[in-house]
Amino acid sequence: MSHIIGVVSGKGGVGKTTFSINLAAALAEFGQESIVIDLDIENPNISLQLGVPPMPLTLQDALDGSVRIRHSIFYHPVGLKIIPSSITPSNKNIDLSRLKKILRELDDTIILDSPPGMNEIVKSVIECSDSVIVVTNPEVPAVTDALKVIKLAKWMKKENIGVVINRVRNDAYELTPDEVELMCEVPIISRISEDSFVRKAAFENIPVIHKNPYSRASIDFKYLAARLLRKEYKPPSLLFLRRLLRFRG
Ligand SMILES: Nc1ncnc2c1ncn2[C@@H]1O[C@H](COP(=O)(O)OP(=O)(O)O)[C@@H](O)[C@H]1O
Ligand SMILES: [Mg+2]
Fold first, then answer.
1. At 134, which CATH number?
2. Which one, of 54, 12, 51, lies nearest residue 205 by Cα?
3. Which ligand is nearest to the CA of 200?
4. How do residues 186-198 score in pLDDT, each as one tens digit?
5. pTM for this structure?
6. For residues 2 and 107, is the Cβ–Cβ distance under 8 A?
7. What sections of the chain are H helices per DSSP?
8. How far apart are alpha carbons 73 and 56 in whole angstroms?
9. Domains: count for the chain
10. Atom of ligand 1 nearest to the CA of 45
């Protein structure tokens, strides 16, 4: 049986795509295969972030019934399975009513990367999801938008909702985890650090977990993956990290 995780946010640019890719990479580190599906149909981003070449078969082909969804999987060299969205603009209306049905054909963990906002696509993502992960940043505008999408998910009778605070700097100008939790009224399942390696990895079209497995964000992603899989994760000791950094000059 598959488990479907919907990644939503309300506000754009908070890190949903980065989160989806790196969650998949971190789950793989603990032996859990997953498929990341690009539901940001209007502005597909996963292929760009991971350097996926234009694909002959995409999510759209599976949605309109011309191929089985399994046939639109791209096997990324770093070991991730991706179902890209078509980057060719089309005036055909996307019929999302088949989304739930075609996802049932997959038996892995499925991560749905959604667009921002509260549009029909986001509603379909929530509708199909067994767990909803709301990505936000520790700032009032991002958390206010997160709250809107949380209310929508609750209204849609979703019970398994968690918040991820991304780009945490631990400085005096950001909301604290307690403040975010108080505003959102759902548990915070992870805090991902602001990390310059995330952008460096995106530049090289690989997840940060592969670019720099010991960077702050990579360790945060691995903590979360271990927690979701109920496994243990011991981050490397400070001494080991210091030696590694010295070795790298
Ligand atoms: N933890 C992080 N540390 C540093 N930069 C980040 C982090 N998370 C995301 N980013 C950067 O923020 C930008 C937006 O991220 P993206 O995943 O595309 O957001 P969304 O999918 O929500 O629009 C990207 O340039 C990405 O590299
Ligand atoms: Mg995105």
1. 3.40.50.300
2. 51
3. 1
4. 999 999 999 999 9
5. 0.94
6. yes
7. 16-29, 46-50, 59-63, 99-103, 120-128, 140-155, 177-184, 196-203, 208-211, 216-228, 238-247
8. 11
9. 1
10. 18
CB neighbour list of residue 12: distance below 8 Å, 6 or more residues apart? 115, 116, 117
Supply the residue whose CA is at minimum distance from atom 8 of ligand 1: 15
Between the CA of 214 and the centroid of ligand 1 the distance, in Å, is 18
Neighbour tally for 37: CB within 10 Å? 30
> How far is it, in rounded angstroms, from Cα 171 to Cα 135?
19
Residues 6 or more apart in contact with residue 13 via CB below 8 angstroms: 116
Residue 12: domain span: 3-247
Q: Is 231 helix (H, G, I), strand (E, B) or coil?
A: coil
Q: Confirm if 120 and 19 have CB atoms less than 8 A apart.
A: no
- Cβ neighbours of residue 227 under 8 Å, at least 6 residues apart? 189, 190, 233
Mean pLDDT by 10 residues, the chain (249 residues): 92 98 97 96 92 91 94 95 87 83 93 96 97 98 98 97 98 97 96 97 95 94 96 82 64
Place of tokens 């009778």: 157
